[in-house]
Specification:
- There is one protein chain.
- The longest helix is centred in the C-terminal third of the chain and has 22 residues.
- This protein has an 8-stranded mixed sheet, sandwiched between helices.
- By secondary structure, the protein is an alpha/beta fold.
- It is globular, with a radius of gyration of 26 Å.
- The two termini are 37 Å apart.
- Helix 6 packs across helix 7.
Length: 704
């Protein structure tokens, strides 16, 4: 049998998702030929190119010139305006941005990294302008309006000019898959953002190869198939079956000739089989074997090719948190530590990797200790990160042990600083222990990330504020944090116990039948919008307060993620930086602070793109040197215009004085422009060049 395994967009562009390499390894060992296609990577690699973005800009220009509807929607109009003004600059920068993210030297220059990271987001904003109301980022895809029912998902997945995936899939990916002459196509769907791309792809494949069975697997449809009133049967028009839970046995049976309708664990058209209410307990996870990455283009991921994911166990040992859908399964199947460490050795030998990202929901303390002992015993030099729980067993001795074995990053579900709220959530965390755990991590060289949330049913405003207060008070031992809002997920215990918690879904009955997550209202009047707004306000407040005493943090635009300056926000990238520089490093001290009058004879050169002028006298500009948008007063714009490469600091200051601007204010403005990389000052570039050279040297020493 020849099986095509496909992973659709969107997902992390810096590494493969594990479902394809794990299944490929299993099926290959049974003698089947497996072809892996990471269409998430292929899609973004195609649309984030100069040639494609120039086409997108023309689409935006045509819309802006010809559609009155764009004038009525201010968000769309702003996106279109930016597309036609900034778009050409972004298009010229996009290919080099991708190349530098893949380059093992340029990657470790924090300023170049930050610029390239922003350019990718700017490129996706161009896509959002052309395919509005879709909003596309390098990791997410959301419709501008709710697609709540399967009927609405079907409508949204039809190939049409507003579907951002259809044309690329039809032109590039479907012909490739059809030409492979596959016996089976399996598509892995693990996030709800992937539903519309998956349905679009399935439609197009079935139209070109109607006899090839298309099977959909992964958590999303495994959950959807178990919804009591789900209309999933309507998808059988172009999908032949839904593989529930662990796909190994069903795929193996199909490859060995068992008729599709007779295979347990696959839901088919007209079949009488109903899925079990919960997933079956996994057998010994050791039988999964090591993932096979050989069929994937590792050199094309948007990162230097030395970071790979690994799963050491399925499920969560705790499985009690009310808000989490992991409590749905309540099964935990760990691999033996010998198998895990043996796999790491193979990845080091086969791919030259130096960083491992464990994708487990949670690695319990006793397994962390055992893994650390094995890694140390076998002298395997890798840096790694994982998810763990804040428990009393996460003590200083364990933390020092795993740090010595290469752990550089720990992701903790902190959630709340209120013990009462933690008890309501059934977290099993004692808040009094958390500061010591964080301090132990930081001292040992491990950068902790804290996931937090507000709006849990029963939480008071004071309790939500206490969580932000904790982040401020303990920021010196925190690498990063994000402050999210409570989400009501269908397969969580919170949904099952919604009436007791005083929560009700606000979806229509038709939408509720197909929903994996719900808009909601909490008794007393609060709803999901209140929680989202509160999380944004508390994030901004916490960041502002931290910044007053510690300049080493930054709030990433458009998110609730606060992290150390110079440490990338993407997980695999942050691990690579922490391996290279250490947990306490940040780049803030490398940027010169101000222009000095002693540099009066040196010319200054500015470069920016004007986007729009607002009624309050400010002008929004785009800085191609770092990919940032800025809103500047008119005096600042005038100052930048004098930085034309022919005038010295002294001449610029004199020009501004003629317009009534004091010398000190002009110098302050030039210093700000220098910090924002809006101007080039020749004398300050030598120090910068030495820093970049040393960064590159450190990076080359860290990479085999």
């Amino acid at each position: 049998m020849k099986i095509g395994l496909v992973f659709p967009p969107p997902f992390d562009l810096t590494q493969p998702y594990l479902s394809l390499p794990m299944l490929a390894s299993f099926l290959s060992r049974q003698g089947h030929k497996v072809v892996q296609r990471d269409l998430n990577l292929a899609y973004y690699d195609h649309v984030l190119t100069r040639s494609y973005l120039l086409q997108v800009i023309e689409m935006a220009r045509e819309v802006l010139d010809g559609q009155a509807s764009a004038e009525r929607n201010s968000e769309w109009r702003d996106l279109l305006n930016r597309a036609v003004t900034v778009g050409p600059v972004v298009a010229e920068l996009i290919d080099s941005a991708k190349a530098e993210l893949r380059d093992a030297t340029a990657f470790y220059d924090p300023d170049r990294y930050a610029k390239n990271y922003r350019i990718l987001h700017r490129g996706c904003e161009l896509l959002s302008a052309a395919f509005f109301p879709s909003r596309i980022t390098p990791t997410t895809y959301v419709r501008g309006y709710e697609t709540e029912t399967i009927a609405e998902l079907l409508a949204a997945s039809k190939p049409c000019p507003r579907n951002p995936f259809a044309a690329v899939f039809e032109e590039l990916f479907v012909p490739d898959l059809v030409a492979l002459d596959l016996d089976i196509v399996g598509i892995s769907v693990v996030y709800s953002d992937q539903i519309i791309p998956t349905l679009t792809l399935s439609r197009l494949i079935k139209a070109k190869a109607p006899r090839v069975p298309i099977l959909i697997g992964g958590d999303v449809f495994s959950h959807m198939a178990r919804l009591p009133e789900s209309n999933i049967a309507t998808l059988f028009e172009f999908i032949d079956g839904f593989v529930l839970d662990d796909g190994r046995a069903p795929l193996s049976a199909l490859c060995n000739g068992t008729p599709l309708q007779e295979i347990p664990g696959i839901i088919t058209r007209g079949g009488s089989k109903r899925p079990a209410p919960t997933p079956a307990r996994l057998e010994n996870y050791d039988t999964f074997g090591a993932p096979d990455f050989s069929g994937l283009p590792l050199q094309k991921y948007f990162a230097p090719p030395h970071v790979l994911p690994l799963l050491s166990g399925k499920g969560c040992e705790w499985s009690k948190c009310l808000f989490c859908s992991e409590s749905f399964s309540k099964h935990y199947a760990p691999q033996s530590t010998d198998v895990v460490v043996g796999t790491i050795e193979r990845l080091v030998d086969d791919y030259g990797i130096r960083c491992i990202m464990f994708a487990d929901v949670d690695i319990p303390p006793e397994r962390l200790a055992a893994l650390a002992d094995k890694l140390t015993e076998r002298r395997i030099e890798v840096s790694w990160s994982c998810y763990a729980r804040l428990t009393r067993w996460m003590d200083r001795a364990l933390i020092e042990k795993i740090a010595q074995a290469g752990c550089r990053r720990l992701y903790f579900g902190f959630e709340s600083a209120s013990q009462r709220v933690l008890n309501l959530m059934r977290k099993g965390t004692q808040i009094a222990k958390v500061p010591e755990i964080l301090e132990s991590c930081w001292t040992a060289g491990i950068s902790p990330h804290l996931f937090t949330l507000v709006g849990f049913p029963g939480e008071t405003l004071d309790e939500a504020m206490s969580t932000a207060e904790f982040l401020v008070d303990h920021h010196h031992h925190i690498g990063s944090f994000n402050l999210g809002a409570f989400r009501l997920q269908t397969f969580s215990d919170a949904f099952i116990n919604a009436e007791t918690l005083g929560v009700e879904s606000t979806l229509t009955p038709a939408a509720r039948a197909d929903a994996l997550a719900h808009d909601y209202r909490v008794r007393g009047g609060t709803d999901i919008d209140d929680a989202v707004l509160l999380s944004a306000k508390l994030t901004q407040s916490a960041y502002d307060r931290i910044s007053k005493v510690d300049a080493s943090f930054q709030l990433h635009a458009g998110s609730n993620y606060v992290g150390r300056k110079g440490v990338p926000p993407w997980n695999s990238h942050s691990l690579a930086y922490l391996r290279n520089y250490g947990s306490g490093w940040n780049a803030r001290q490398e940027r010169p602070a101000r222009v000095e009058l002693g540099e009066a004879q040196l010319p200054l050169s500015a470069g920016y793109v004007e986007v729009e002028r607002s009624t309050d006298g400010h002008t929004v500009i785009f800085n191609p040197r770092n990919g940032k948008f800025l809103s500047l007063e008119q005096k600042m714009i005038q100052l930048l215009d004098y930085c034309d490469g022919s005038r010295s600091v002294h001449q610029i200051v004199n020009r501004m004085a003629a317009h009534g601007v004091a010398d000190s204010h002009a110098i302050q403005g030039l210093s700000q422009a220098l910090r924002e990389d809006l101007v080039t000052l020749v004398s300050s570039r030598n120090d910068r060049r030495e820093f970049v050279t040393e960064s590159a040297a450190r990076a080359s020493r860290a990479i085999p």
